[in-house]
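Handoff note, outgoing to incoming analyst
You'll be picking up this chain. Sequence as last confirmed:
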Amino acid sequence: MLPIFILRNMTSYTDYLMIISPPAEIKAEIDRYKRASARKIGEFNSLHSKAHISINSHTRCKPFHAQPAIMRMAGPLGLLPPIKLKIDGFKHSMSGDKYTIFAALANDERTSNWFKLLRQQMRITTKNFIPHITVARSIQGDVFNYLWPFFKDRPFTAEFMADRLTVLERETYVLQSNWHIFTELHFGTQLL
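Most recent structure output, in case you need it:
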């Protein structure tokens, strides 16, 4: 199956975000955690973003260069089998003096190897990649210290099949530009 995409009439620069999107029921559950967090701490980064696993992003790209490169990934990603991902509780990370609380994926060998292969197929070389679904991003230490106890031992388990990479795009220099789907690249299409 070939991916379907529409060439948009974008003559300026475009940003691209490559994600794995969980099903609607998991998105709704993460949104519930986001709204509960906002009732405790107020507005924060990522409050209004839909639940997803970020894989890679490219900013300020010329669409006529980026779009064919993205479409060429369909072949290598078609060799990667779909995988059942498991969410297993909440964790946090720190970057500088800011914290992020996220729904953690089970860190088993199969999942770790699959994400490593995905990133190799996409030619991504950055290290320290931890696949996760963000709940509250870039919150200050005192806010984190108040919010984290509500997540620390809270059980949250779910499973879903990751069968495609969704590529989102938006115009770079347009105020209030929204993300929309550029294409979806399905895993396992070359394995049949």
